[in-house]
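Researcher: Sequence recovery benchmark, item below. Answer with residues only.
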């Protein structure tokens, strides 16, 4: 059975692509969840219009993310934590702490967009990548200082 995908689906295809799938997979999963529509001429036209609208929306979102990235890349977030000997923190600095530090400087960025591989556990200065859009990633400077 041929269907037109309305969303990107792993191991199957991308949005707007015509793919051949098993009838049961289409009938029981793709069609009820509105992830795909049957490949008819009228549906192809509708999906093409949706695809064009999606591209415009995506371009606008990317432009906004690039503008925000230019502003955020110059930001330095300073976080004060209690630390013991050898500059070892008693706790750790997580992406939530960094997001809160950005929010204090009037930058609203979701903590899930801050790509911290593992929590910061030492004092110092770190470059942390922030993924604002699938094609826009900027680095911010995070300074972890000892609390007085």
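Model:
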């Amino acid at each position: 059975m041929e269907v037109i995908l309305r969303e990107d689906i792993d191991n199957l295809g991308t949005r707007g692509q015509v793919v051949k799938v098993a009838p049961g997979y289409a009938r029981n999963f793709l069609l009820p969840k509105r992830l795909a529509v049957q490949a008819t001429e009228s549906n192809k036209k509708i999906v093409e219009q949706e695809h064009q609208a999606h591209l415009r929306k995506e371009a606008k979102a990317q432009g906004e993310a690039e503008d925000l990235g230019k502003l955020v890349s110059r930001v330095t977030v300073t976080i004060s934590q209690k630390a013991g000997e050898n500059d070892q923190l008693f706790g750790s600095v997580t992406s939530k702490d960094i997001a809160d530090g950005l929010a204090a400087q009037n930058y609203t960025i979701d903590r899930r967009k801050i790509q911290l591989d593992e929590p910061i556990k030492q004092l110092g200065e770190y470059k942390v990548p922030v993924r604002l859009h699938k094609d826009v990633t900027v680095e911010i400077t995070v300074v972890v200082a000892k609390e007085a």
